[in-house]
Amino acid sequence: MTADTVLASTPGGMPAAPVKARRLSTPVILLLVAAGLLAFSAVRVITGADDITSSGAVRAALASAVPIGLAGLGGLWSERAGVVNIGLEGMMILGTWGGAWGALTFGAWGGIIAGAVAGALGGLLHAVATVTFNVDHIVSGVAITILAFGLARFLSSLTFANMAGGGDTQSPNVPDLPRISLPGVSALDGVESKHWFLVSDMAGILRGLLTDVSVLTLIAIALVPLTFYLLWRTSFGLRLRSCGENPQAAETLGVNVYRYKYYGVVVSGALAGLGGAFLSMVASSIYREGQTAGRGYIGLATMIFGNWRPGGLAAGAVLFGYTDALQLRRGSESVHALLLLIAVILLAVGVWQIVRGTRIAGLVSIALAAPVAVWYFTTDQIPVEFVQAVPYVTTLVVLALASQRLRPPAADGQPYRRGGG
Amino acid sequence: MKRWDLRRVLPMIIAPIAALVLAALVSSAALLISGKDPLEAFSAMFDYAFGPNSGPDVTTEILNKATPYYLAALAVAIGFRMGLFNIGVDGQSRLGILAAGALGAASFLGVVPGPLRVVIMIIVAMAVGAAWAAVAALLKVYRGVSEVISTIMLNFIGGAIFAYLLTTERLGVKAVGGEIVSTPLLKSDSWIPGMSLFAGTANKMFGFAFVAIACGIAYWFLVGRTRFGFDLRATGLNPSAAVASGVSPKRMVIATMLLSGGVAGLVALPEVLGRDHAVTTSTPALGFTGIAIALLGRNNPVGIALAALLWAFLDVSNLPLDLLDIPKEIVTIMQGVTVLAVVVAYELAARVGRRQQQRSVGAATGEAAIVTLGIPAAIAAKLGVEAVSAPVEPPDSTAPTDPTVPGKHREEQS
Q1: Per CATH, the architecture of B37-325 is what?
Q2: Is residue A147 less than 8 Å (CB to CB) from chain B?
Q3: Distance between CA atoms of A137 and A128, rounded to whole angstroms?
Q4: Contact between residue A326 and residue A199 where contact means Cβ atoms under 8 Å apart
């Protein structure tokens, strides 16, 4: 229905070339992680920006990555079933209210459930509109976001306004979920504060990842492999994904496409709601209006960044969560330090591309490295406003450079009517 | 074909009314659950907006609120007519107004006469809005990036640039003793005067409202009466048919996004030129509101105007609800439900319309019978259709055919 179909079919447009699946094997991934670690500690030692690998930054990055990742997982479930879910933001808003209200009424675990249920109801509404009534997916998502904002406000004026310490736009303090630490790890504090090359960095990262971790964080992390297992290793998942790839074919094989689309979208809402509950219960232990601050959209971006796969999505969530976290920890200097890393990476990629024979791409990369390096050496920090924009710029750059390699579900966003094939 | 086929128009009129009724019912239910009287709430809202006491004041305020809404919705509607989602009205309008506001107050333009400066501001706001939209257009055309995602990202990036530039170190100034950062105040010769509409109020309608109305007329003319508008609608309705008839989709995407972004650049001008006379950090963001109003108004210039007025009425008239101890957020719920209900209602109306069209096509299958007999329709018409088709029962026997007018049903299908 949109101009996309036209653009895809023009001869001048980018041909939908079959993407060569270059799967990363475990040793390669481990090598990449090790190289990344080395690069980060080198940058830290050279620039003196201690916060880029401190345990506090890592912990904050994990906490920022969880809601983004949950929203992204939500988007994944929905889009794999063929329904574009731009209402993730709205479902997250419902989740923030649900989490806070549930936690205040039924205790912390009740908050998790209430948040997920509130988000799932938003998802159900989206499913009714898009699947049953065939409303355009984007339109429905926009409407749900508008509705969710008003609904959360209305509900909190009914509930939180009557509680001590609460008001129309914020709740009283929400009971916290239990936090877990791996015993013994906190002893690494001494090592981290020495600022040794590599050793202190590893200590900081381990401390950040293994101490004082909320239960909901663990649940969220577990949901990534669980999603992969359910969607790619079970017949349920195969059916659900077939609805996103070719619903007519699925229909001929006896799959109830409507039902699987409903499953996908409702689970999507529940995950987004869980992300919202994390914001109001764990990240800030209070419900505040406007708390989601566009994280639903970043989640959507993460899903695209991760090429509609759980692993890539998790990597994207960590990346965006990390930039988000650096904002709070002397972001201007930390991100400035990372400019050096970006320049070096661009240079390396450029040289590699020239060696491989793609000269133009290589020269472009090297040409891009120069201004980044100049930027690094001529300034001391990056304006904090630009630090906030990092996830969005990254997404645009990734989309611009790699959109031909991305492969969304084939029937994503297309209307489907039973027997209409 | 008759231009106003009642059977097709009627569902399209009933749909928004049904959606409004549903929205009123849902919000009434929400009020009843919270133990309030919905009728009391609605009558208080109406009384506040149109009653003798506060009416003149508040009605003017509604009109003033509706003006930027109208512009934002027009910007969205231009894209919608081609099947493009410009969700980036927010970022486009912010950057546009910041550039216009900073330039309009700049000292080197001080010698330029006021009205000319207003024209320069309008042009700059449109150009910057269009340029920001062009980023999304180029990404779509050359890199295949969906404009839905790119415009959302550009909104946030635009917001960051806005916040970066509107600080006291750069374009902003701080009023003496105040905390609000804004661009320098515009000289009074480039303010657009307001118009008193009603007796008994000091409130004036924005003069810029006439520019908004002119934009609406221009939109109607461009989309409905020009070659470009025809191509635009054709691409929106059936992309592959449009391409087959020689429309270049790339050019259309770029032109449409530029137009949409240009109108988006105007969104904040009514308030800046007519009331605030400076761009502040609180200059409103209207992205999603514009989308909702365009949907509500069915991309029709008059429909959008009505929808903008309705939206503004709901926004403004919720003030007295606080006095009745009714949560005024009920209005936001009403807005959300209206949008959702209206898109569902239009979808259902379109389905009813399609079914009726199919039925009339079914009724026309007298002609199909001729084809099955091996005689091309045009020749059959010359030969005299009655003789051939009379004995053949049309497949859909519920709808009667009219074999005496052979050309009629063919026209209906086209």
Answers
A1: Orthogonal Bundle (1.10)
A2: yes
A3: 11
A4: no
Percentage of residues in chain A having pLDDT higher than 90: 33
Which stretches of chain A score pLDDT less than 70?
1-24, 329-331, 421
B333 vs A403: CB contact, 8 Å cut-off? no
pLDDT for B395 beyond 50? no
Average pLDDT over residues B312-341: 82
Rounded to a whole number of angstroms, the distance from the CA of B32 to the nearest CA of chain A is 12
Taking contacts as CB-CB distances below 8 angstroms, the residues of chain A near B290 are none
- From chain B, pick out residues whose CB is under 8 angstroms from the CB of A392: 153-154, 156-157, 160
Q: What domains sit in chain A, N to C, each tagged with a CATH number? A: 54-321 (1.10.3470)
At A412 the three-state DSSP class reads: coil
Note the ipTM here.
0.82
Mean pLDDT of chain B, nearest integer: 80
Half-sphere exposure of A303 (CA within 13 A, CB side): 27
What are the backbone angles phi and psi of residue A180, rounded to the nearest 5°?
A: -120, 140
Chain A closest-CA separation from residue B219 CA (Å): 20
How far does Cα A389 stand from its chain's mean position? 15
Q: For B11-20, B81-90, B148-157, B208-217, which range has the lowest pLDDT when averaged over its residues?
A: B11-20
Residues of A in contact with B292 (CB under 8 A): 142-143, 146
B58 touches chain A (CB under 8 A): no
Owner of token pair 């209207």: B286
**Facing residue for A154 by CB, picked from B30, B146, B253:** B30
Among chain A residues, the shortest Cα distance to B144 is held by: A403
- Are A144 and B249 within 8 A, CB to CB? no
Q: Where are the domains of chain B?
A: 37-325, 377-413
Is there a contact between A141 and B339 (Cβ–Cβ < 8 Å)?
no
Q: What is the pLDDT of residues B136-193, one digit of tens each?
A: 999 999 888 888 889 988 998 999 999 888 887 777 777 766 778 888 887 777 777 8
Q: Which of A3, A144, A157 sits opposite B253 (nearest CB)?
A: A3
Hey, is the C-beta of A14 within 8 angstroms of any chain B C-beta? yes
> Is it the case that residue B375 has pLDDT exceeding 70?
no
A249 vs B126: CA distance, rounded Å: 47
Q: What pLDDT sits at residue B285?
A: 64
Cα distance between residue A401 and residue A398, in whole Å: 5
- pTM for this structure? 0.83
Pairing outcome for strands A179-180 and B181-182? unpaired
Higher pLDDT, B347 or A310: A310
- Which CA distances in Å does A5 have to B84, B234, B248, B263, B336? 12, 14, 13, 26, 30
How far is Cα of residue B309 from the mean position of the Cα atoms in its chain?
12
Residues of A in contact with B330 (CB under 8 A): 154
Longest dimension (CA), chain A: 69
Instruction: Convert A213-248 to b/e letters by CB count within 10 Å (16 or more is b).
Output: bbbbbebbbebbeebbebbeeeeebebbbbbbbbbe
Q: Tally Cβ neighbours within 10 Å of residue B97.
A: 28
Q: Of A3, A143, A149, which is closest to B235 when you measure between CB atoms?
A: A3
Q: CB–CB of A14 and B344 under 8 A?
A: no
For chain A, say whether B23 makes contact (Cβ under 8 Å). no
Question: What would the two tokens of residue A304 be?
Answer: 């695209």
Contact between A7 and B82 using a beta-carbon 8 Å cutoff:
no
The one-character DSSP state at B280 is B
Report A:79-108 residues touching B (Cβ under 8 A).
Answer: 84, 86
Going by C-alpha positions, the residue among A77, A45, A26 that lies closest to residue A308 is A77
In sequence order, what DSSP letters do the residues of B145-193 get, joined into one string? --HHHHHHHHHHHHHHHHHHHSSTTTT-EE-TT---EEPPPPPGGGPPP
Q: What is the pLDDT of residue B189?
A: 78
